[in-house]
Design brief:
This protein is mainly beta and 333 residues long. The protein has a single domain, classed as 6 Propeller (Neuraminidase), CATH 2.120.10. It is 4% helix and 49% strand. An eight-stranded mixed β-sheet has the order 20-21-22-23-1-26-25-24, with no helix packed on it. A four-stranded antiparallel β-sheet has the order 2-3-4-5, with no helix packed on it. It is globular and about 45 Å long.
């Protein structure tokens, strides 16, 4: 497992962006909203060393997983450091390889170590409470409305890749296999968000598929103007193993708002790679396209409906206001 995990991480870092895929040629006209993003503020500068994830506290402040600093940090929306905890280590409240994912529930904060099965639970005042381990390692993580912690696991194999619901004591409540997982570890790289009604929407990094789950699999659909899968190239790992690795990403981040709209940050196949945000309505149709002024590593919408983006080599968080205007686009089919 350790070799597979290490190979996966290094393969992602070494992906070759050499695909010959061309930008979509449009053929069918549809009406969507064109959204314009205007930056309000950026916070970070020297405060963060390398952010891997962030979420919002009930009071509107942000909790940030700063992997390179081995800490989680709570900051105000204006960039004031309010509190922080953590250091490199294996003890309670410490991080072996740095914090990777962070999500906020009604009573606790969950933090997953990087490339690890370890999950730690903290109070909202950043006091370490307990830890538990998943089967495989943590790919995605989110609290639902009932304060259950959903964790997306990944282990390179189909039978380990699943959505698992835990209570706040770390006890498994439900397990759901990922419907489009395979024994190709790249197929199993995914993100998810939770929309009202505690429905989970899964987006795959290297498959043009979105899935819906509740207490079981519901349905799947795709985005017509993206390819079914990216092109693959043969790469050699540091261990000398040869494998087929994707050259480009389809989706890079996913989030949702209180109205159930889903936001997808497009990868290499977007019209403006890593800047285009595709907004899907509850009917699973694209209702708007938002283009960020700079490339983003992750997007998230706060409870006020404003968009936040992780930028600048993972050292800045930028808040955007969004304005609307009707425009035409042609959807490739």
């Amino acid at each position: 497992m350790k070799n597979v995990t290490g190979l996966f991480i290094r393969s992602i870092v070494l992906i070759l962006y050499l695909s010959m895929w061309q930008k979509p040629s449009f053929s069918q006209t549809s009406q969507v909203q064109h959204l314009f993003a205007t930056p309000v503020r950026s916070i970070g500068d020297t405060l963060f060393f390398g952010i891997t994830d962030f979420d919002f506290m009930p009071d509107g402040s942000l909790i940030v997983a700063d992997k390179q600093d081995y800490r989680i940090k709570r900051v105000s929306k204006t960039g004031v450091l309010l509190s922080q905890t953590g250091k490199r280590g294996k003890a309670k409240g410490e991080f072996t390889s740095g914090p990777f994912l962070v999500t906020v529930g009604k009573s606790l904060i969950a933090v997953a170590d990087f490339s690890s099965p370890r999950v730690q639970l903290f109070t909202h005042s950043l006091e370490a409470v307990r830890e538990f381990r998943v089967n495989g390692f943590v790919m995605a993580m989110k609290f639902d409305s009932k304060d259950n912690l959903w964790i997306g696991t990944h282990g390179g194999l189909k039978n380990i890749t699943r959505l698992v619901k835990y209570n706040t004591h770390g006890t498994i409540q439900k397990e759901i296999p990922i419907s489009h997982a395979s024994d190709n570890m790249f197929d199993n790289l995914y993100f998810f968000t939770i929309i009202p009604g505690d429905t989970l929407v899964v987006a795959y990094a290297y498959q043009n598929i979105l899935d819906e789950y509740s207490n079981s699999y519901i349905s799947s659909w795709n985005l017509a103007f993206f390819p079914p899968k990216p092109q693959y190239e043969r790469v050699v790992s540091e261990q000398g193993n040869k494998l087929q690795a994707p050259t480009k990403e389809i989706v890079y981040s996913i989030c949702s708002d209180k109205n159930g709209f889903v936001y997808l940050l497009g990868g290499d196949y977007a019209f403006a790679p890593f800047r285009d945000v595709f907004v899907l309505n509850r009917n699973k149709k694209i209702s708007a396209i938002l283009q960020l002024p700079v490339e983003s590593k992750k997007i998230l919408v706060d409870k006020e409906g404003t968009l936040w983006s992780l930028e600048s080599n993972r050292t800045l968080l930028t808040q955007y206001t969004v304005s609307q205007r009707k425009t035409k686009y042609h959807e490739h089919r």
